[in-house]
Automatic annotation (TrEMBL):
This is Probable nicotinate-nucleotide adenylyltransferase. It catalyses: nicotinate beta-D-ribonucleotide + ATP + H(+) = deamido-NAD(+) + diphosphate. It comes from Roseiterribacter gracilis. HAMAP family: NaMN_adenylyltr (MF_00244). Belongs to the NadD family. Catalyzes the reversible adenylation of nicotinate mononucleotide (NaMN) to nicotinic acid adenine dinucleotide (NaAD). The keyword Repeat does not apply. SUPFAM superfamilies: Nucleotidylyl transferase (SSF52374).
């Protein structure tokens, strides 16, 4: 880390979250970018959430290790990108010792039994969530909100997961109560999305500026 001290993220305290509605945005954040922030701000508004947690994964089983920045680099970059008092950047999966979303969500629900969680993801993830470990269990464990994201968009509504749980999809007009819905329950938002993706940023040389060993993005996400 070239002399820069990394402060290990503390586990989220159980107290203080009782009764709150929390959106969970998990991922590698390799790197975090304005698309993540844009989705989070939409979720706060459209789902009437109290907080959104960015859960920086220690490692994504579906993504190759090559080209993956360290957890410390991704965590610190996410903290700089969040820039909002109701977006909490967390490394809680590291503390829970979970690797798959199907394990993480029940562990969170056990640790925060009085917190209402909603899983957040872009349409690109809906299109391929059927590849995730025990993916149908995820739908049956937590309400889910899917946000349109180019270029997948409405094509993701024809994915295996969307077809499997088509009858459990609720209307976007009712989404403000999604946190209280019994799963499986999910909503698709067709609102305009930020097209940025971490993959595109990496291909374009997105991790450009190096400050004491930590890659960051400039304000234009380049």
């Amino acid at each position: 880390m070239n002399g820069r001290r990394f402060t290990r993220p503390r586990p989220l305290a159980e107290r203080g979250w009782a009764g709150l509605r929390v959106g969970l945005l998990g991922g590698s954040f390799n790197p975090a970018h304005e698309g993540h922030r844009h989705l989070s701000l939409l979720a706060l508004q459209l789902l009437d959430l109290d907080q959104v947690w960015w859960m920086v994964s220690p490692g994504n089983p579906l993504k190759p290790a090559r080209g993956m920045a360290t957890f410390e680099q991704r965590y610190e970059n996410a903290k700089r990108k969040a820039r909002h008092p109701r977006i909490v950047v967390s490394g809680i999966e590291r503390d829970l010792g979970t690797r798959y979303t199907a394990d993480t969500i029940p562990a969170l629900q056990a640790r925060f039994p009085q917190t209402r969680f909603v899983w957040l993801m872009g349409a690109d993830n809906l299109a391929q969530i059927h590849r995730w470990q025990r993916w149908s269990t995820i739908f049956r464990t937590v309400p889910m909100a899917v946000f349109d994201r180019p270029p997948r968009g409405f094509h993701s509504l024809f994915s295996p997961a969307a077809r499997r749980f088509a009858r459990q999809r609720i209307d976007a007009a009712s989404a403000r109560r999604l946190a209280y819905a019994a799963p499986p329950a999910w909503v698709f938002f067709a609102s305009k999305q930020n097209p940025l993706s971490a993959t595109a940023l990496r291909r374009a040389g997105g991790w450009l500026r190096i400050e004491e060993g930590i890659p960051t993005l400039d304000e234009h996400g380049r």
